[in-house]
Specification:
Helix content is 73%, strand content 0%. The protein is mainly α and 574 residues long.
Length: 574
Amino acid sequence: MDTLKNKFNPVIILLSFLISWFVFAFLIFPNVNTIYETFFGTGDFSLEPVQKLLSSERAVRSIFNSILLAVILTCTVNFVGIALVLITNYFDIKGARFLKISYFTTLIYSGVALNLGYKLVYGENSPLTNLFLQLNPNGDPNWFSGLFAVTFVMTFACTSNHVLFLSSALKSVDYQTIEAAKNLGASQWTILRKVVLPTLKPTLFALTILTFLTGLSATSAPLVFGGKEFETITPMILTFANSSSSKDLATVLALILGVVTIILLTFMLRSEEKGNYMSISKTKSNLVKQKINHKLGNVLVHLFAYGAFVIYSLPVLAIILYSFTDSLAISSGVLTLDSFTLDHYFLAFSSLEALSPYLVSLGYGLAGSFLVVAFCLLCAYLMKKYNNTLTRLLDYVLMIPWFLPSTLIAVGLIVTFNTSQWIVLNQVFTGTFWLLLIGYIIVHIPFTLRISKSTFYGINHEIEEAAKNLGANSFYTFIKVLLPIILPSIAGIFALNFIGILPDYDLTVFLYHPLYEPLGITIMNATSNSVSADTKALTLVYTAILMVLNTLILTAVYGNVRFKKRKRRGGTHE
């Protein structure tokens, strides 16, 4: 009887219906409808949009530029990322802990905020450009633009995954294998190339694919630094989407981007299944940092380490420094003692209107992060409790946003909900406050679900059984027993999603309501030369506050985790 009651629990049935409706309405239906509207919009199958796209030299060039950028970034980002990880975790470099702070700055600001920082350092009105023009009066003030500028910025902006995940993978390398290679007479270079790096292959392979996809769908960096001579796919999709006569071209470009993404991720997953990288050591020893014996090599590595420190630090310092200066200093790039002021900070907090972009983004961030965490927690719990064909199918379907670029998801939502649709009770969402919130929830589902599932499966099943034996129902068990256990992990997921939503531009630019301008749009607008210096100054204040806020959030979440680990280790010695 109890089994039958659990099987037909009305609450579970209602939740399953709501989940199924959301998945179909916002993950499946928009993408299928986009394909239908593109190729069957006239009632009959037609390849006219594809032919129209291929006849556009500008569109074809953007595809080529995106592929070129993606290929270059896979080389440059991997080189810099691996180098940073080795500098901070493998080689014995003087001041490594100090250097590590600058290498992690990409975690506290990214996207348009990061591009704003690089423009302050290398842009046409920056002190560096002014010095360059003084040395070479005939020089081009817009020297930092095109493929070189985009590649440079994205190379140092996209190493966050390396310093996080590759560092973790490196720490799992068994030091005994390194010692064994040393005893056999292998040089440091040979050990690094044939012992250490092969162990990191799975992580490196995944990071390479993710870097390629990042380059392929790059948005803010090409918009800020690319100029007319270097346009890529996503900015071109944005241009076409804003024109009523070219919306079909935007859709076709987004579909091309989606197809390439699916092919690459499928290739990555299959390659991971075939690969088998395991340590054969039964008792691992912790990695010990290696001193570089080669004198010239030691000097070059130290030069690279401190050179990278300067490159990573300058944009952050520029944002903070210029946020305390007047409009004249920001527009001219000339800093004097008289330039410093707190007026812009007072202005930023003087009224709700001045804080509007921040309040909008905070609202979206809190609502989007809470809803996606709640949704994925529910799905993960049902997948664990009812491990059957339907829950496994749900798991696969919820990975759709992982396989599709955010650009295609945005275009699908716009095309589908631009008119009334029966699946949402004939509501029109395009041009409303709600569409962007739906977009934020969708794109953060795969990451949130993966972490939620691993958290649930890490809980001892006996705890739930004990609560059940004491008479607790499923809801009470979840709220009073399971939720407190997984709360630290959930707080981490919430924080990362929140930090990702606050400065987002790539998805926001397609879906935001003009009357509710989020922070990412405000910061991007400030990178334009046509914007007044006062507006730029206010945006710099927003960006500086954003970095401080992100730092506090990351420190609160991950600093607390490290403290607990140290406390546990200390407890074992007592």
